[in-house]
Amino acid sequence: PVLAIDVPTGVHGDSGQIMGTALKAQATVTFFRAKPGHYLHPGKALCGTTSVHQIGIPERALDAIKPTIWLNSPSIWQSSLQKAKETDHKYNKGAVLIATNEQTMPGATTLAANAALRAGAGLVTVAQNNEQTLSANFLSAIMITQSPQNNDWQPLLNTRKISSVLAGPGMPANELTKQMIQALLNQPCSVCLDAGALSSFQGAKDDLIKAITAHKDRKVILTPHEGEFARLFGDFEGSGKLQAALNAAEETKATIILKGPDTVIASPDGRAIINTNAPPSLATAGTGDVLAGITTAYLAKDMLAFFAAAAAVYTHTAAANAIKKNLTADDLVQQITS
Q: Is the pTM of this model over 0.85?
């Protein structure tokens, strides 16, 4: 049996990357605070059970270290998540728009819309071109409207008092989608982009950055899985997942949720959060659409983008952990508690 002290030999403590070759430990003991490499793959899988022990380093050492990376926990973001009040109405709880054009996977839109409603949005509207693409699984409270034919989204956003917009789930990666995203980003509202909305900018990352930065201080969250991230920013095998997410956040001026068993939430200001409570059962179709819906609902509550993203990821994985069987994305929606 191998007991690793600090990190297993060959694992990079900052990134979890394997430096050529590495030992696999049954347990790892580290001191004062854990390192990112204890929670990021592939290093996480080589650490076994990690425990942190104190050896006399005073807490005030953190004042000098000034950490910018944390493990995801409600203590980070819970105070900024609105609590229900007797005087609440549907608009101050946040109005969400799921924006679509042509849909190749309407079930993805359904999952995202239902998740946004379950996560506490006061009102959820789906805008689409063809009402015949509706899924039968829509919750009755979700409203349907027509997408603007000329990509002029301002009247719809104003009329529906929209707080945040989600685009991408169920949409193809093509020029029409790209043009729609650019038009949406030309509006000052908060935006979450996922799936086809991201892949449409493959080879045109600068166009996406230009659109995101058109409005200063506007909140934007990108939620790529590793494949979508690679299409936009390239492979991150060299730098590791954490640094790649931080680089992308700084470059785009958007908050990044880089999904996976070790999801990283990265802020443009250099802060990052690593999520550690994701069960393997989340590796199934549609769960990313559910996360996008939760994220957009929290954006609508006027949370800072970094905290909204961290809260959404934690809520998403907590819902998965509540399901004691092989989950489906539809099951996941039913378990959301905001």
A: yes
